[in-house]
Amino acid sequence: MNLIKDTFFEGERPCFAAQDTRFEHVKIYPGETAGESAMKHAQNIEAFQCEFLGKYPFWHNENLLVEDSVFPVAGRTAIWYSKNVKVLNTKVDAPKMFRECDNIYVENVQFSDAGETGWNCRDAELRNVAAKNWRNTAVAYWGLTKRMICWLPRKRLYVLANFLKLWALEPVWRITA
C-alpha cells in the first residue's frame, strides 16, 4: 500500500482514482477555485488522522477506511455512492455524510449535524454513534434502509414497517453497543 503522510492537497480532484493508498495526517482543502471531489473513484483507501475541508471528498469509492479523522462543515456530502465503508473514531460536523452507499460500518462517531445522512444506504451497522439534528432527517433516512443493524436502548427504539423512529426529548440520536 502506498503511503502519503504529513501533507495537504487542494483544488479539483487532486487524488482522483487513487488506489491502494494510506493517507496519514493529510488535510484536504478546497483550494482557491473551490475544488472538490478529492478522492473520487478511488479504491482501497485508508485515511488516518486526516481533515477534509473540501466538499465531496469520497464519491464512488470502494473499500474505504476513515479513522480518527475530522469532517468540518465545509467537508459536506462526504461519502456518496460508495461500497464497503468503515468510519471509526471520527468527528463529523458536515451534513449529508452518507448517501446511496452499500456495506457501511460506523463506530465511535459523533455527528454534530446528521441532517440528510443515510439516504438510500444499504447494509449499515452503527455502534456507539451520537448524532444531532436528526428530526425528520437522518433517523428517517437511516430508517429507510432495508437492512440495518442498530444498537439502541430498547425504550427509545420503535421499528415500524422498515422505518426507524426515535422518540426523545433532546435532539440527539444515540446508537450504543
Structural account:
The protein is mainly beta and 177 residues long. It has one helix at residues 134-143; strands at residues 2-9, 19-28, 43-48, 51-52, 58-59, 62-67, 70-71, 79-80, 83-88, 91-92, 98-99, 102-111, 122-132, 148-150, 157-160, 163-166, 172-175. The chain folds into 2 domains: 1-78, no CATH class; 95-177, no CATH class. Helix content is 6%, strand content 47%. The strands form 3 sheets. Strands 1, 2, 3, 4, 6, 7, 9, 10, 12, 13, 14 and 17 form a 12-stranded mixed β-sheet that branches.
Note the main sheet: 12 strands, mixed
- Rg over CA atoms: 16 Å
Mean pLDDT: 78
Beta-strand segment tally = 17
| Secondary structure tally, helices | 1
Query: Considering DSSP H and I runs of 4 or more, what fraction of the residues is helical?
Result: under 10%
What order do the SSEs take from the amino end to the carboxyl end, as H and E? Answer: EEEEEEEEEEEEEHEEEE
Residues in β-strands, percent: over 45%
Number of domains: 2
The residue ranges in which pLDDT falls below 50 over 5 or more consecutive positions are 135-140, 143-177
Shape: globular
Structural class: mainly beta
Distance between the termini: 32 Å
